[in-house]
Amino acid sequence: MGLESLEILNLEHNDLIPKKGFPLNIFSSLLNLTSLLLVQEQSLRNASFPDVRRLTNLTKLSLDTVDVVVSMGEEFKELKVLSSLTLSGSAKIIGNHSFINVPHLRELRLIELDQLTELDTQALVHLKHLNRLEINSSPVGVKKTMRALEPLQKTNMAVIFFRQLFSTSRNQAPDMISQNGILDRNKTKHLLDICVREFTLTDSHIYVITFDALVSETWQRCLKFIDLSENPLKGTVMAFARLLTMRNLEVIFVRNCLRSSGKNTLIPDKLTAARSQSQVNECRSESSKINHSEAGNNRVQRVLFGPDHSSGIFVYVSDSLHFIDISNCITSGKLDISVTFRGAQNLFFLDLSDNGFERFTGAVSGFYGFKTFLLTGNDLEKLSSTFFDTCQSLEYVDLTNTNLNPDFFCSSSERLFQKLTKLKKLSLDGNSLTLLSPNTFSSNRQITHLLLAGNRFNHVPFNLKNTPELQVLDLQNNAIVSLDQETTGNLDQLAVDSDGFQLKLGGNVMLCVCESFHYLYWLGHTSVILDRDGNYSCINNDRVLSHTKAFADPIAMWRQCSGQFYFSVSIFLFCTLIIGFLTTLVITRNKTFILSSLLQMFTKFKVLKSKDYKIGVFIGYADRDYVFACTDLRQYIENTLVLTTYLQDRDLLPTFDMAQGIVEAINSSWRILLVVNRTFLNDDHWSLFTMKSAVYALTPTNPDRVVVLVDRQLLSSLPADLLSSVPEDNIITVSRWEMTYRLREMLRTRLL
In what residue span(s) does the TIR domain sit (predicted)? Predict the structure, then answer.
């Protein structure tokens, strides 16, 4: 076939297996093969393995099992250098003699053996050189898997990887009944006698880890990496605590433990209250014994979550720890006390994302090389301005979606980050912030990445001269309509200094008007790297949604803006002369009549009426809370007031652009009625756009056009431009969303 020199053949994850399996001698001529990968999408029973006995150079092999019992037959004896074997398929049993003919294996992977229910205790007895063991997506269960590790005791291994060992994918209860969901010393006794460097047990329906399940002298000496993620752990805080003190452990992953319902108690609700005094004394006593038995070793072999009333809480960890990820595993906890880590001088990464921590008014100290601190998804509404003072080595802080208090950041954001002089990356995404305090980041001269997306900034909220090393500024999905000349000049200077400065402005609806001429010109000519190629949505003078690239021609823009100005000046001078001349003639006769006639004659001024509009009332409401607006309110307006209504869920065509549809509907409506509830104000993606479009629709020809129906508790949360543009009489507050007599009368007087 011309393939005699082929060394690697990968046919995995196809649909190549005939009904009776591969032909027996199909690979016999490929004598130089070192890697043969044959696992398919579907496997067959009672088929046969291809003959591989002539492939004596084979070092890596993957196969689908073809029998109920895994059996590597006599033909595999010839594969003296085979070091890696991967098995998949429909086998149900791995027996004591399954691997007797492949004793030289260093890597064994059992992948997606989705019917495997038996793993004999001596199944691995012949694999004396095994260095890596992986069992993935096989329902053999934790109990039988751990028992099968007995032959590997007293051996050295690099990796033991277990994932999805549960007996069923739908009902987790059997794992508790069969004890597969409980990890105790009786199950792990063989595992703990293996000198393994990396151990993973994820997504295997482990509910409980007992105090002594994961600690042994062998693991104290050998283990450097452990991952227990995606198990619905329900308790046993001390089992986790002992991991933190393992002598050579460097990396800990315990992520996503909150997948099932019910409260997870991996870490106590309140660190100062979760442990009884007797537990504290017991831990201290055992720590003293360990210290006494290891003379000269100053490392504390316990984590104490007990209180020290004079100085808060001390948490003792191993000085070998570098990386801890405990994200989405804790339902609640208050950091309103001092927490001091002892032995954490080498820890550089701590991920506490998506946990239930709140009240960050205490202090966390003891970190000397701490570089990354992730707090995404916690509740930082109550945050002390000195919280980060004890973590001065931090380079990356992630506060995304942490419910930060806008008022606190208006006054204290400078102080909050003042001590983080080495900070390089900060994320404040998704916090609805409006302002930062003056001179924020003045102490963070090394910062390179600032992520401020998903807030309510209408300008760059800090002095760009304070961040000379800035490389990325993310202001997506804020309230920016334009940037002033000073800001754009500073941005250009950053682009020159950093050689590749990036600015992200997507999601902001700009103003493409003459007042933004400088900004629109800058977007098309700056050396700053802009997202979306510098083309953003904007609203033009006609209140029509457009895009900034349409205004990229500076000459045409200048003519449009200047021509309007000079034309207005000419009209003004002409009208002034005519009015002055006529006034001189007849002012003494009928002053009131003349003034009225002049206004109608020369300014073409008239007040529009409802018949001048195609739509009676535009109703703006939240997509997710439409019941009141689309039923009671609509019926009253249409049936009682006899006015037509516009509802976006009813009247907006599916193929029509949402923004353009809103703008055109508003421009065609006699009255604009905004139903402002909490959902509309906080969660609706189009609420800000709708309110701004309503404000732009106000003209002298229809000054009472906008009516706001708002929850009484949300009145102070309305945008300032809406409050300043809408007459006070047109803002109706309600305590409950019902068509009361008062509400009907107020709507009648304002909509007709």
Answer: 613-747
